[in-house]
Amino acid sequence: MGAILANLQKTVIAGFVLLVVIFVVVKAISGNWAFFDTEWIKFVLRWLHVLSGVMWIGLLYYFNFVQTPGMPKIPDEQKPAITKVIAPSALFWFRWSAMSTIFFGLILAGVSHYIVSALTLGLVQSGTPTTGPAIGIGMWLGIIMWFNVWFIIWPAQKIALGIVNGPAEAKPKAARTAMLFSRTNTLLSIPMLFCMIAGAHGGTM
Fold first, then answer.
1. CB 3.0 to 4.6 Å from 156: which of 29, 32, 96, 178, for a disulfide?
2. Chain centroid to CA 27: how far?
3. What is the pLDDT of residues 21-51, one digit of tens each?
4. How far apart are CA 171 and CA 164, in angstroms?
5. What is the pTM for the complete model shown?
């Protein structure tokens, strides 16, 4: 077991293997082997959407609650370990989990026939089921956050961390831009998560 847990790739693979085992056991107990229908596809899309979102928001909170406040406390000679190793890796998973969260969320909304009504905040009802404004507000906040990640935070971080060449005087401004928009996403994440959960699980708004 230690050989599996000592390796991240093996740990993730083991997690999926365990999932398959649990799935088979539950199906065997229930005696219901029906899957791969529309409802099953929607369930898998929702699971992938949530799984991606956990990675995305988890890293957002890591940056804002751990890394950024902790950087001033780190001696200057040790900071390259963060800026050259930890941060670029975290930003890779950060931006691609943001992309997969939006991708699976929009596909789920399309398959579930509520994407038009959600994106119009319930003003235009198309297909079933109809939706109120909550899920749409959550979706728009998520889209804004995704845009910030890909088109503001990531380009600014590439300059701030020296991943792309740029003048030294541009780095502090880029770092501040990345920080402010990361904080903006932290702010937006609170109502976004509330609206997404309320819209999907019958919360009153």
1. 178
2. 30
3. 999 999 889 888 777 788 889 999 999 999 9
4. 11
5. 0.91
